[in-house]
Amino acid sequence: MSSRTHRLASVRRWVPWLLWVAAVVLAACGEGSAKDAAPAAATTSTDLPTASPTGSAATPGQLIRLLFTGDIVPARCVYARHLAYNDFRHAFLALGPFLSGADITVGSLDASLSDAGSPMGCVRTYNLLAPPQSVEGLAFAGFDVLTIATNHVKDCGSGGRACDEALLDTIANLRGAGIAPVGAGSNLQEARSPAVISVRGTRFAFLGYDDIASYYHAGEGQPGTAPLDASTLRADIARARQAADVVVVLPHWGTEYATTPTERQRELAGTAIEAGATLVIGNHPHWAQAVEQVDGAFVAYALGNFVFDQEWSRETQEGVVLEAVFQGSTLAGVNLIPIRIQEMHQPTLAPPEEAEEILGRIREASEGLR
């Protein structure tokens, strides 16, 4: 797909999807959302919005629900909060029951879970190592897949072999909790391998890539992350299509603190869709970015932060959970659920007025794509 064709397709096709998304979310975030957004308030999945694709004859039991979150960093101030509450699940208490209610729940882990180094408290540092116990919160929230193809996955505070060990520990700790890590491994082949999950006969393949920290990319005998480039996408998606009915690409990319995706993000998204991906769900910018529909596939360039301690701006304390609803292997609908991070660690539902503002920024950024 040429860049020009990709642009024309997105201009024509994103509008009805985003309007439907906004209508569903705003209707769902009415009475009762403010109390659900309170810090540490436990919720149930029935308290929260779900997508109901228009025009679908399927019953709820036939639909397959996938949930995607923004960046998760259980280190620094989040780690300090967990110590203070004596509960490594605390960041996920408000939305965990909702997340675990999906058929497949997917996130982006921008940290290491290891005892290969010393975790830091609530201080300014790029040491984003969290203790292995942090996996308790991820398991409580029902995560099935986590991309660890992120630019901080080997920032363990020590450097060298210790951070290679931290990465491998992260993979082992996630697998030990029943969570499939994607986008990194002990070598390049492992890093590029998909996780495949089957739900009621439909197979979903997930691939993760990092486009930010090339110094952490895997090699033939080097632990690290999967690099993001067009040729890699085409080859990996083609292989994944042989093992799955739906391919989901999870890129770590783009410019921090921006709502508009870069040209490179858009071109690589077009490449992924042309190769056969149905969903491209990105992260890293720390702000929620534009969305668009291209040739029956859906792209969310970034979902913003989810469990994070970046408190210095409103945008870094906000984000969305993306719900994708499938009928078999057909994408039937998408729903954006605005969230607000409380106490520098715990995502909750955004109150109605703030939810409208978050969706408004996404809408404005999406309208600006040409």
Return the CATH topology.
Answer: Purple Acid Phosphatase, chain A, domain 2
Tell me the distance between the termini.
15 Å
| Alpha plus pi helix count | 10
- Number of domain units: 1
Q: Report the sheet-strand fraction.
A: 15-25%
Mean pLDDT level: 85
CATH architecture: 4-Layer Sandwich
Number of strand segments: 18
Our Rg estimate from Cα atoms comes to 19 Å
Helix content: 25-40%
CATH level-four homologous superfamily name: Metallo-dependent phosphatases
Tell me the major beta sheet: 8 strands, mixed
Could you name the CATH class? Alpha Beta
Q: How would you characterize the overall build of this protein?
A:
By secondary structure, the chain is an alpha/beta fold. The protein has one domain: Purple Acid Phosphatase, chain A, domain 2 (4-Layer Sandwich), CATH 3.60.21. Helices cover 31% and strands 25% of the residues. It contains 10 helices and 18 strands. It has helices at residues 3-28, 33-36, 76-85, 96-100, 135-140, 161-176, 188-191, 230-243, 263-275, 352-367; strands at residues 63-72, 104-109, 112-113, 129-130, 145-147, 180-182, 184-185, 195-199, 202-210, 224-225, 246-252, 279-281, 291-294, 297-300, 305-307, 318-327, 330-342, 346-349. The strands form 4 sheets. Strands 1, 2, 5, 6, 15, 16, 17 and 18 form an 8-stranded mixed beta sheet that branches. A 6-stranded mixed beta sheet has the order 8-9-11-12-14-13. The longest helix has 26 residues, at 3-28. It is globular and about 45 Å long. The two termini are 15 Å apart. The model is unreliable at 1-57 (pLDDT under 50).
